[in-house]
Amino acid sequence: MEVPGRLYVVATLLPLAAFVLLLAGGGVRAACRPYRREGGFCGTLYWVCGGDKPLRTGAYLATACMAAAAVLGVLGLVWFLDNPGVTGRWAERTDWVRVGPRDTAPPPVWEQQRAANPELPAPRTALALELGYKIDHLTAVAFAMVTVVGTLIFLFSIGYMRDEAEEVVEDHEVDRQASRERERPEDGPPVAHAPGSPGHFHRRGRFGRFFLYLSLFAFSMLNLLIADNLFQVFVSWELVGACSFFLIGFYYERPSASRAANKAFIVNRVGDAGFLVGILVAWTYCGTLNIEELTRRVRSPDHGVHGAKRDPAQYPDQLIRANPAEPYVDGTPKFALPPVKEFGTGSHLVLMPLAAEDPDHVHTPGYGPHRDSNFPVPARADLTTYGAIPYALFVVMGLGIFLGCVGKSAQVPLHTWLPDAMEGPTPVSALIHAATMVAAGVYLVGRCFPLFAPEVLLVVAYVGAVTLFVSATIALVQTDIKRILAYSTCSQLGFMMLALGVGGWVAGLLHLITHAFFKALLFLCAGSVIHGCHHEQDVRRMGGLRRKMPVTAFTMLVGVLAISGAPLFSGWYSKDQVLAAAAGYGLDHRRHLALFVLPLVTAALTAFYMFRLWFLTFAGPPRDADVHHHAHESPAVMTLPLIVLALFSVGVAWGWPLWDADASYLGHVLARAEPAAVAVEFAAERLTAHHYHLAVEAAALGLALLGAGVAWWYFGRRQPAAVELWRPGPGWYRFLAGKWYFDEAYDAALVRPTVALAKGAAAADKRSADGPTPPGAAEPPPRRFDLFTLDGLLNAVGQAFDAVGRVLRGAQTGRLRTYVAALALTAVVALGILTALAK
Amino acid sequence: MSELGLQPFMILSAFLFACGVVCVATKRNAVGVLMGVELILNAANVNLVAFARFSPTFRLDGQVFALLVVVLAAAEAAVALAIILNFYNNHATVDVDEADELKG
User: Fold this and answer.
1) Mutation test of the interface with chain A: which of B24, B28, B35, choosing the one with the most A Cβ atoms within 10 A?
2) Which residues in A267-392 belong to E strands, given as ranges?
3) Residue A64: how many CA atoms within 13 Å on its side-chain side?
4) Cβ contact, residue pair B24, A816, below 8 Å
5) So what's the pLDDT on residue A89?
6) For chain B: N or C, fewer Cβ within 10 A?
């Protein structure tokens, strides 16, 4: 292929093609439905597009497209690793919406470099929203991961969603929840029943629609991965959010599902608002949204993060973000800052000129070896010259982008939507809410790492640390199999954020990849268990399932071992690196020791809750004879993905030698995409991390063993009786089971005041016509509040004009002579005034 | 013939105008009012022609304007007389004080 990167574009568009085809098929079917009895062309079309019974063809089509994308993704990864090109990445971009004029004459420096190296892209200096892709080592790996995991989950869904392929589906959950709501009525519309079947909700199966959403999701996610600019990321970001909304609310007749979908969407909007703020700051001050250009623009070559002066000999060509504390050296601006007057006071970051820059960290006038040359600094900041961004706004930009990531990656305090999102079908939980979409936030933090000021990185680290600890403690006491996994996902995402925040860039993203595999595996195993137990999700009713479902039990054990950090399993490599990075930072900065202690403790908690889950589900004698009796192993279409994912969960991070966590091949691949800023900013911490690596490794392993041992002691050694599990626990237990009461706090602080305000506003305008008139009331009760406010204001305006009219009508007597006299007098007076003015 | 200045024409015009206004303001007969209006228009005509005579820039323009006013006055008289006739048909009088049905 002439441009190898287009392979990825094709792979991205494949699921979109499946989406469009499914959508068209469904649309034609719906349009032809009135003719289904009459036959003819339209009737035939109706039956071709599926007729009354949902077609399975759509699912096969979507899965085939996804599999093709996976083949392309893996091929692309191999090809890219083999030949990443001169620039170390494959990228193309094109204008989408142009805002300013194109700069017709690129600077001579650029032209020289382009003559020497034709692969360099042409400079773009005008404002434009762009479409583009950038494939580097991170993208290539993540792309392969998403497509492979996605294909396996599509395959699994064909088996899991089998019920939806029926003409009529009975959803008992709807009636169960509806009866519960009738007893304890809350807000929300009453559930509509199909006519003629009171108490039994029926609907058409939605097999095709499920794969329609999945395909759209896959496209958006892949687009998000390859996007080279923040705007494209934002569009995909919203698209995956919308797909997540559709899929959480897939069983939208259930009040709980529709509520969970709304919650996920609204909570994510909070994060997205921050993201938008970040994008706007970047657009306003940097004039571009291209991530690579942004990361190259915002920097200063003089200082590291912690104030240490950078050694130019050590990093001659790297471009490093500024330390704002000391923009001046020896009283003079060593590095050319724009005149301070022009930008107000306070510290600024220097924005580098875009046009005069090379695309690939090579020498520029005024930089590297040439930095003492007499390079003129223009007085005004515009797109093609130097600029500056106030440091406070730079922090705001980083915090804004990170807030988006907090929402999407379900970090505290916006994590509450993820456990509720488990209302969706289990393959959705696996694909979207464990493996890929929630990882998008971590991915973006990794991508935008150089845009994050040290303060922002500290926030990232602390948010990650708090999240990983809080969600792990909640996961300890949950009893719903999917919710345990959901909190575990939050916790693991916290590990990734923490790693990124403390400079473990490779560690965080390696954990992202390995976690995607083993968490998808765990969720699909949970799905298999739920499917086999006829939609029973409470682990307290399970037990002893390992004999009934040996493949599921075994593969899930692999997943449990991987997430707990058992040596040689993929999770061990990544978690080990995360902990080492955290140790490096925590030990170097003793004030932030919590950043090391929390993940270490959580490593034990993780092992505990995962083994608790496994023991309760699979080990011991069955606790619920009914569930156990009907349980069965899932069909091959579901177990095959489990086995494949289990293999990945073991070996995806292997390298040689196997026992060295730092030797992970995947880690080395990712390390090639690491921004230069990481190594420079966290040089000292890395040394510390390296120094204590073995000790941390041993401590983590010991703690994980301890956690697993405690789990075995309580749940594995002898199965607790069912009664014990149902007994309400002590206070701390209830606190954890209540999820630290985040939902209650939000409810009290935000939801209820809003609802109360809305109800008050409605009551203020309540009129008799709006509601039933009480029987026997002679006249309707008067409008209360609004008569004097909004309505009153508008009425007052009308009344004022009415009064003015009443006064003025007196002037119109109907007598011609009065008019003429008035006319003549007015003319005389006007003339008099004019004469007086003329003098 | 001794040269007359602009002033006598202005005085004549003002006198005519004043007469017209007084006529319009005092007459109760609608036809009388109409005659007052004609006086006002002719006061304007005198002005126009006089300015044209004494201004170096208005050579012909003023007289053309005056002709236009004469024609317009004729048209106006026709319309006004039609209105008066109709009013008389309806009210059996031409007293303008009776025509007050549109007052506020």
Assistant:
1) B24
2) 348-351, 387-390
3) 10
4) yes
5) 75
6) N
In our burial notation (b when 16+ CB lie closer than 10 A, e otherwise), range A58-67 reads bbebbbebbb
- The Cα–Cα gap between A354 and A717 comes to 65
As a whole number of angstroms, the distance between CA A156 and CA A166 comes to 18
Beta strands in A525-596 (DSSP E): none
> Is A816–B96 a contact, with Cβ atoms under 8 angstroms apart?
yes
Residues 6 or more apart in contact with residue A268 via CB below 8 angstroms: A241, A244, A407, A408, A414, A417
CATH architecture of B7-92: Orthogonal Bundle (1.10)
Q: Where are the domains of chain B?
A: 7-92
Q: What is the pTM of this model?
A: 0.75
The distance from CA A333 to its chain's CA centroid, rounded to whole angstroms, is 41
Strand partners, A98: A128
- Could you read off the pLDDT of A83-107 as tens digits, one per residue? 776 666 788 888 787 765 555 444 5
Bond into A378 cis (ω within 30): no
> Are the CB atoms for A468 and A409 separated by under 8 Å?
no
Q: Where do we find the tokens 């630290």?
A: A740
Does any CB of chain A come closer than 8 Å to the CB of residue B35? no
**Helical residues (DSSP H) of A33-106, grouped into ranges:** 40-48, 57-82
CA-nearest of A89, A72, A82, A80 to A12 is A72
Output the CA–CA distances (angstroms, integers) from residue A181 to A177, A254, A535, A622, in the order listed.
Answer: 6, 11, 21, 32
| Residue-wise pLDDT tens digits, A502-528 | 989 999 999 999 999 999 999 999 999
| Secondary structure class of A303 (helix, strand, coil) | strand
For the complex shown, is ipTM > 0.85? Answer: no
